[in-house]
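Hi again,

Forgot to attach this to my earlier email, sorry! This is the prediction with NAP bound. I've pasted everything inline since the attachment limit keeps bouncing my files.
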Amino acid sequence: MIRVGINGYGTIGKRVADAVRAQPDMAVVGVAKTRPNHEAQTAIRNGFDLYAAIEERKPRFGEAGIKLAGDVDELVDASDVVVDACPSGVGAQNADMYREHDTPALLQGGESADVVDSSFNARANYDTVEGDDLVRVVSCNTTGLSRLVAPLRERYGIEKVRATLVRRGGDPAQTGRGPINDILPNPVSLPSHHGPDVNTIFPELAIDTLGLKVPATLMHTHSVNVTLESEPAAAEVRALLADERRTFVIPEWLGIDGAGAIKELAQDAGRPRADVWENCIWGESISMEGRDLYLFQAIHQESDVVPENVDAIRAVLGTTSQAESVATTDEAMGLDEPLA
Ligand SMILES: NC(=O)c1ccc[n+]([C@@H]2O[C@H](COP(=O)([O-])OP(=O)(O)OC[C@H]3O[C@@H](n4cnc5c(N)ncnc54)[C@H](OP(=O)(O)O)[C@@H]3O)[C@@H](O)[C@H]2O)c1
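Structure tokens for the complex follow:
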């Protein structure tokens, strides 16, 4: 069994912890937090050993009646690999600790590509990260774009990607985020950071991205134009994307008109936390104009990177092939059960 520590038990960390625990070849050593809040309570309720991330704050856990298993150092030491799901920038601060313990670590998309050895997407570059000390599982948006780009590039070749990312203002629990009643070009200057981030996965890809932020919490929506090197029929592209493991082509008959309905579908399907791990591409939006492909896709920011983290664990340790890892991850999480 691969022993996995989770440092940072928030939106991403708690989902990764559950996904890792579901795997037949992995065990969660424990999770680390800085303070005893409702997420610490969730960790205890779910039976995870809790470690203190900050020495001086340890007494607070005792005052809240929460028993600690140890310090984060001990968690790192006892782990074969650590998933760092701390807030953006904290992962980079933790890098020295992982190096000192000689424990490979997976950082998340909020960290700069400069602080890691490699950036990871299971569909695109699984085989490139084995043996690295620090690997970055790219952000939700970059994951969504990479899953789309990989099969298109392999089958048709890509001349240029242009994507406009309509981004949720914050996650449902992020009460301090916004906008509340506005539509922000964000960043207002071009390109947004997402294109260069996709280039950490596909270095040669020509891609321009623009970003906006809107008063929504459910999902991001991408409006995508890809100029291909050949001219397939829209139906052919649709079949290609429907065949991918982590893209769900939404059939028209479902009557899904937006992110709310997608989340409702996931909830009704019994998905944990109503998570939508796959890219959701509106089938009828897949259109070809000459060599230009157009489509809309929705990306669940809280969960699409979760299976990617699980695969990155096997990839960095070199325990299995890409195909085997992805199949195992999907089956253990229930991602092989299509949403419809
Ligand atoms: N949410 C998303 O949409 C999303 C999507 C893809 C990637 N990401 C990336 O994933 C990373 C985590 O994001 P998130 O949304 O999960 O953040 P989050 O919900 O704020 O969770 C981070 C957790 O880390 C804990 N923490 C803070 N400082 C820590 C430290 N020094 N050591 C250990 N734990 C610490 C925080 O809890 P306590 O302080 O209470 O312990 C918090 O619960 C970021 O890089 C982010 O950019 C986020």
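Residues 7-13, 32-35, 37, 39, 53, 85-88, 90-91, 108-111, 139-140, 171, 301-302, 305 surround NAP (CB under 6 Å). The longest strand covers residues 158-168.

That should be everything now.

G.
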